[in-house]
Amino acid sequence: MENRTDKNSYTIVFAIIMVIVVGALLAFLASSLKPRIAENERLEKQQNILYAMGVNDNDETSANFVSTKEAPKLFEKYIKKQLVIQDGEVTENDEAYLIDVKKEQANAKAGIPRRLPLFIGEKDGKTYYIAPIRGKGLWDAIWAYIAMDKNMVVKGAFFDHAAETPGLGANIKQRYFMDDFIGEHLMSNGTFKGIDVAKGNADPRNEDKTDHAVDAIAGATITGDGVSAMIRNDLKLYVPYFENLKQ
Amino acid sequence: MGLLSKKDSKLILDPLADNNPITIQVLGICSALAITAELEASIVMSISVLFVMGVGNVVISLMRNVIPSKIRIIAQLIVVATLVIIVDLVLKAFAYELSKTLSVFVGLIITNCIIMGRFEAFALANGTWRSFLDGVGNALGYAVILIIVGFFRELLGSGTLLGIPVLGDPIEKTGLYAIGYENNGFMLLSPMALIVVGIIIWVQRTRNKALVEDN
């Protein structure tokens, strides 16, 4: 005997009801949680920027942000200016940290001049210029906040990724990798050279800071190449600003 | 196990060893290879799968009399995908830090054959409580293997456990590294995960001859 659930009409009605129920459930959940998620992302950006300029809760080995509670307060305290550079023109914008670098990159491809956010932070009498950059890793997006001084020498870096392999590419957000960038020079004799994530760098302690190279993570070649490319492509765009700064 | 009947406790205990989803049923291998380079990732993945499988089995068991058999696989897939998206959204809203660590794994859960396997083989034919126990049991069996593989891969590949250096410092040459030990970078690549799983299967079948199939 044919079962009630074997009928075609039953199957179709069941499929339609299931899709509607699941769709409604997920849509409701997503829209009701959206403000909380957006707020979390906003705080994370502040934490990232602060991390890059050395305002963080690190101990000897860990890479920890300041707490979400303190982030807005500290962000206001340390970040003195937020700039947007577009077509060589520099304007101040208090919400420059909310600029979506991914969207700006897409705009640039479509011919719309890209807006480049830059944050100027001050800590212990030193000035930090912090730039957000974004690129591709092995599986998905990778991004970073690089803090520099006015000579484009790296003073701090924070890397993050969407879906790199745990234990391999995902280690770009480990302290030992991020700390290697501190002190590296981006410019060489007045031209932009970037920093290569190099295999066989023969400098495991990263003592040579003018060689424009840091040691790669074993087994994460493509992620490392992505990091080099992201630094080369995105930080280069800031060079005119830094050249103006010197004059 | 005073709380559970003998039959029920079998549902939890069997998948831990003699009917292990990875080493005996040979399911869920893909995620076991992909994320076991670190012990922490193995643990986090195990907990996520425990949740999805426990709840998923209950949901499928509740729906077992109304799901049309023609589209049961699609219905099961929708249940897994929905649970995974709910976990992801809730974590993003209430445990943002954790959600970032989990991001890679949450997506991988959908591809986990054990979940679909248990829905198909057990939850569609059994009551809610027993389905729940079966889901938990199989998730624990999966967790055991994942944690063993993660332990050896992280220890031999990076010289650390849960991120803490346990064999000394490879750059400063202290601890084991002082006597010439080197990290085996090959352990961090997926092929070695397969070999470690293979070794576990071998050990298990050597100890329990009943598991060896006759040709």
Automatic annotation (TrEMBL), chain A:
Just give the chief location class: membrane
Keyword Cell inner membrane among record annotations = yes
Keywords, ordered alphabetically:
Cell inner membrane, Cell membrane, Flavoprotein, FMN, Ion transport, Membrane, NAD, Phosphoprotein, Sodium, Sodium transport, Translocase, Transmembrane, Transmembrane helix, Transport, Ubiquinone
Subcellular locations according to the entry: Cell membrane
The record's section on Pfam families has: FMN_bind (PF04205)
- Residue(s) carrying FMN phosphoryl threonine: 221
The protein's annotated catalytic reaction(s) are:
a ubiquinone + n Na(+)(in) + NADH + H(+) = a ubiquinol + n Na(+)(out) + NAD(+)
Question: Which named protein is this?
Answer: Na(+)-translocating NADH-quinone reductase subunit C
Q: How does it sit in the membrane?
A: Single-pass membrane protein
Q: Which GO terms describe its molecular function?
A: FMN binding; oxidoreductase activity, acting on NAD(P)H, quinone or similar compound as acceptor
Which family does the record assign? Belongs to the NqrC family.
Species: Hwangdonia lutea
Positions of transmembrane segments: 12-33
Assembly, per entry = Composed of six subunits; NqrA, NqrB, NqrC, NqrD, NqrE and NqrF.
EC number(s) per entry? 7.2.1.1
Biological process annotations from GO: sodium ion transport
What cofactor is needed?
Answer: FMN
Record-level GO cellular component terms: plasma membrane
Residue runs in coiled coils: none
Q: Which residues are in the FMN-binding domain?
A: 137-238
Q: Which domain of life is it from?
A: Bacteria
Biological role: NQR complex catalyzes the reduction of ubiquinone-1 to ubiquinol by two successive reactions, coupled with the transport of Na(+) ions from the cytoplasm to the periplasm. NqrA to NqrE are probably involved in the second step, the conversion of ubisemiquinone to ubiquinol.
UniProtKB/TrEMBL annotation, chain B:
Q: Where are the transmembrane segments?
A: 43-62, 74-95, 101-119, 131-152, 185-203
Query: What Pfam family is a match, any one?
Result: Rnf-Nqr
Q: Which InterPro entries match?
A: NqrD, NqrDE/RnfAE
Q: Which GO terms describe its cellular component?
A: endomembrane system; plasma membrane
Protein's name in the database: Na(+)-translocating NADH-quinone reductase subunit D
Q: How does it assemble?
A: Composed of six subunits; NqrA, NqrB, NqrC, NqrD, NqrE and NqrF.
Write out the similarity annotation. Answer: Belongs to the NqrDE/RnfAE family.
Which EC numbers characterise this protein's activity in its record? 7.2.1.1
- Which membrane topology term applies here? Multi-pass membrane protein
User: Keyword annotations for this protein?
Assistant: Cell inner membrane, Cell membrane, Ion transport, Membrane, NAD, Sodium, Sodium transport, Translocase, Transmembrane, Transmembrane helix, Transport, Ubiquinone
Q: Where in the cell is it found?
A: Cell membrane; Endomembrane system
Q: Does the keyword Nucleus apply?
A: no
Q: What does this protein do?
A: NQR complex catalyzes the reduction of ubiquinone-1 to ubiquinol by two successive reactions, coupled with the transport of Na(+) ions from the cytoplasm to the periplasm. NqrA to NqrE are probably involved in the second step, the conversion of ubisemiquinone to ubiquinol.
Protein's organism: Hwangdonia lutea
MF term (GO), any: oxidoreductase activity, acting on NAD(P)H, quinone or similar compound as acceptor
From the UniProt record, list the reaction(s) this protein catalyses: a ubiquinone + n Na(+)(in) + NADH + H(+) = a ubiquinol + n Na(+)(out) + NAD(+)
**GO biological processes:** sodium ion transport
Q: What class of enzyme is it?
A: translocase
Gene for this chain: nqrD
